Amino acid sequence: MATLVLVHGAWGGAHGFRHVRRLLRQAGHEVSTPCLTGIGERVHLASPLVNLSTHVRDVVHHILYEDLEQITLVGFSYGGMVVTGALEHVAERVRHLVFLDAFVPDDGDCVAGLVRGDARQKIRLGEDWLLQGPLREYDSPEEARWMGLRRTPQPGACFTEAVHLAQPLESFAFTRTYVKATRSPPQDPGEAAFRRAAQRARQSPAWRYVEIDSNHMLSSNRPQALADLLAQIAEAA
User: Fold this and answer.
1) Does the active-site annotation cover 47?
2) Is pLDDT of 144 > 70?
3) CA–CA gap between residue 204 and residue 209 (Å, rounded)
4) 123 pLDDT higher than 90
5) From 32, 77, 140, 171, the catalytic residue
6) 97: CB partners within 8 A, 6+ apart
7) Domains of the chain (ranges plus CATH)?
8) Closest by alpha carbon to 13, among 45, 29, 37, 31?
């Protein structure tokens, strides 16, 4: 049995992993899906003070308070920033790190910089501190409706705060995998950064690289394939 912690992306919540979580638990694995402050089921806690550090603490405290060891830590999309920031505090508890069609930052990177090409972005005066997310496509109209009702805006400071990483990801003792969704069009928000991250993984012997035939919403569109893959990664790590 493996222990997995699945960290969701921006404008989402732990509910986005509900299909994958159920399948992994049915297969006998221990799975938890912490929800990040200010979005998803914790949208009532949204404020201009919520930033990347807030979400890093959400995940770090979840792991520490649950006393989870030898975990497969999975970050989806924006969640790649969160799991990277968490390493300063819980790296010794991580057995394998998985970036699921996600940002892979270096020290000092922020989401806005990775998307726009500027290393450090800040919210400008007069800008709304809550940002609406892009429309995403789902294979199932029913899933699209269900997820759409639970879509929440996200505090912009999550995208402008830089991540802290004391050493390159490749130098940590745990193993690491990048999972790329192959059907996302190049104009999708964040896709250029995800493709750069995938290329980094493909070119490095420190990484494993896997593809899934889906657009960015892998956990909704390919839950069985994703659950099988995560179980395989966790068991082999």
Assistant:
1) no
2) yes
3) 9
4) no
5) 77
6) 72, 73, 75, 83, 87, 169, 172, 174, 175, 176, 177
7) 3-236 (3.40.50.1820)
8) 37
